[in-house]
Amino acid sequence: MEFSKNKSIYMQIADYFYGNILLEKWKVDEKVPSVRQLAVDLEVNPNTVMRTYTHLQDKNIIYNQRGIGFFVSNEAQSIVKDLVKEQFTTDELPEIFKTMEMLGMDMQEISDYYNNWKSNLKN
Amino acid sequence: MEFSKNKSIYMQIADYFYGNILLEKWKVDEKVPSVRQLAVDLEVNPNTVMRTYTHLQDKNIIYNQRGIGFFVSNEAQSIVKDLVKEQFTTDELPEIFKTMEMLGMDMQEISDYYNNWKSNLKN
Amino acid sequence: MEFSKNKSIYMQIADYFYGNILLEKWKVDEKVPSVRQLAVDLEVNPNTVMRTYTHLQDKNIIYNQRGIGFFVSNEAQSIVKDLVKEQFTTDELPEIFKTMEMLGMDMQEISDYYNNWKSNLKN
Amino acid sequence: MEFSKNKSIYMQIADYFYGNILLEKWKVDEKVPSVRQLAVDLEVNPNTVMRTYTHLQDKNIIYNQRGIGFFVSNEAQSIVKDLVKEQFTTDELPEIFKTMEMLGMDMQEISDYYNNWKSNLKN
DNA sequence: GTGGTCTAGACCACC
DNA sequence: GTGGTCTAGACCACA
């Protein structure tokens, strides 16, 4: 996994969790990777992973069983969905729309980029 | 002008310049507000404005005439357009698309949000 | 380190970096002093050092690892060499030559000064 | 006349005077251009020229006859020569030598640049 | 009037 | 611990 410079690493790790939960790759009560293991896999400081986990736990997206690990909570799906959608529609989309105006782009162009992006994913 | 807390103030001031240049409110060789004046208008510290100006000057978007002020450079339009478009297509759009996938949204929904946003602007 | 008053402090700190990089005292990917530490060592305000670092980062001479520090970039050597040589040959040397003409000095005299300067360095 | 960005304009105008005096294009008691005229010729603000003249007058290089103009003083030659030589040997040359060391250049290379520069002047 | 630099001190996010 | 941003206030050189 590569990290963008525009966003903090621990939030990008959270994004990775959001994806896995929303797309149901990780189900309710399933164990998520250990802090240490994930830190090794992602080549980041364990503190950084821990920060993500603390953050997700605060939001009741994962829960902890002492000595065993972290697990996906019951409400994870709905919490994440609300969270992501909220931020998407109130922060990110308006930002995009403003930039579109500045660049004089219309929805069709965005749509083209989208199709392009999707076809690139397959390869 | 209100500042979002997600982004540094000096970069939001830069964004303000980008808009004015792209939409040709400010033309080539036109004088831009003085550091002190803009600081007063935006209610920020002059150092913060100075930081924006230094940044824009480094990117050859504005130039300085000693003792007189800053002016929009010849290539400002094209430099800004490249800059903004580059970041938009390589950073922001993919981010949006990823989130769309996660949320299971399609282009039609985005388009609806867009039209909604545009009609809100008019009011 | 003493600072000349003809040049801004933050640029003199940059010169110090140029020297260390060109003479390979600092190698690629080596960590450079932290902003705070260097500020203490040089007895200047951290903001002043920060200004140098931002400048060098913009020029891709150093890069940042979040929360860890600044490091010498791959291309640092060649960038600095180009930078310094460019300025030396197009700005400083012509200036010197013009003054030599005005003073009626020839290359031999300059050479004498040079040898003199070098022998003073040793003591 | 073109002005370098590295030096203040009024000092570059002073340099122009130094050259004319040292190379005896302007002799003792000869009238120098009026402030207004020179400002027009050089396309600078009259204040800037005035600043040069004040500076030169302070150093007894030119003197003023009220209502008539400025004139080259008796001691102009020797004063300028001392002034320029002093700055040249204590400020500029050491600076050059330091840069030479950093770039690993020797006197021969400088000499080559010098010959090159002189032959370019003729064209 | 203009920009340019610097200090002092603070607060924050991040690793 | 690291950098990043911002404020307040000052002083200077320059046009």
CATH topology tier name of the largest domain in chain A: Arc Repressor Mutant, subunit A
How many β strands of chain A by DSSP?
A: 2
CATH superfamily of the largest domain in chain A: Winged helix-like DNA-binding domain superfamily/Winged helix DNA-binding domain
Q: Given the structure, what is the number of helices of chain A?
A: 5
> How far is it from the N-terminal to the C-terminal residue of chain A, by CA?
17 Å
Order of helices and strands of chain A: HHHEEHH
Coarse shape of chain A: elongated
Q: Summarize model confidence as the mean pLDDT of chain A.
A: 91
Strand content bin of chain A: 5-15%
Widest beta sheet: strand line-up of chain A: 1-2
Integer tally of domains of chain A: 2
Reading off the top of the CATH hierarchy, the class of the largest domain in chain A is best stated as Mainly Alpha
Oligomer: homotetramer
Residue runs with pLDDT of under 50 for 5 or more positions of chain A: none
Name the biggest interface: A-B, 31 and 31 residues
Radius of gyration of chain A: 17 Å
Helix content of chain A: 55-70%
